[in-house]
Amino acid sequence: xxxxxxxxxxxVSLVLEAFSPQGIGPEVLLAGSGIAAADLHQPDxxxxxxxxxxxxxxxxxxxxxxxxxxxxxxxVSAYGMLGYALLTSATFGxxxxxxxxxxxxxxxxFELSLExxxxxxxxxxxxxxxxxxxxxxxxELCLTSLKVICDDLLGRPLPLSGARFDxxxxxxxxxxxxxxxxxxxxEADRNAFAFDRQWLDQPLPLADAVTHRxxxxxxRKQNTEFTGRQAWxxxxxxxxxxxxxxxxxxxxxxxxxxxxxxxxxxxxxxLGSSYQELLDELRFEQAKQWLAEDAMPIHCIAERxxxxxxASFRHAFVRWSGVAPSQFRP
Length: 330
Hints:
single chain, H-NOX domain, Arc Repressor Mutant, subunit A, two-stranded antiparallel ribbon, 7 strands
């Protein structure tokens, strides 16, 4: 479900850097995300996928091809301890398999896999479940950044034999050739790039067994923390989702979760969220689903989401989506 994942501020910082030379300030790109400029200076800050996607949506509204540029900026050093663990792996294949073991530390929105096809290996990204309007952006960002990571690990460009994308070619398709330096096909059966499988056995220039063991163990512990916090946030969301018709409020929700309201508020703040933001997200998701089905009258949707007046629901939906509920319907 959208927004249930945690991630770092890496992508957000890169978005701001990409637009800074054009004179576009943080206030424009951070608008609506709940991220303050001061948060960018806190290295341990964790944000939700919702917050990251809001910033990315602001960026795409300014430049449709920004995903390719952002991916090009995401070097292996941007991934902290995981980046060091990858760089010090014995072989290229070892590094890629380690990265696949910790998707939470990669901050990916996809299920990543290495799929052998004869003498080729396809590095594939699938199972995207986030905002549909940002699918192409996120695929561009994901595959371009993975290619950059591969190049960084090897200390030279990884030669590709092909790249595939499951959507129509955009107007800026020539830029794909610049990024991947191989034949590119659109409206394909997958989102992936391919390379010769012999590269998996290639020793890495910065391999160091002692450092690698230490970094791999720290990655394991960090992944446990990440996934634990994600599971907790998912539990909170699940509990609240069953009560949208009569939202319990922060204090009552805390009682249901067997914690104090202060503890719940602090945990949500640490996750870059709040009770009201979670409630709005869940109402918005449910409203979109019911509106898409085009069967339930809008006043009934408002009532089932806990709004005392239809007008209040309309105003809230415009705030969430930018359009009225009636305009959202197919």
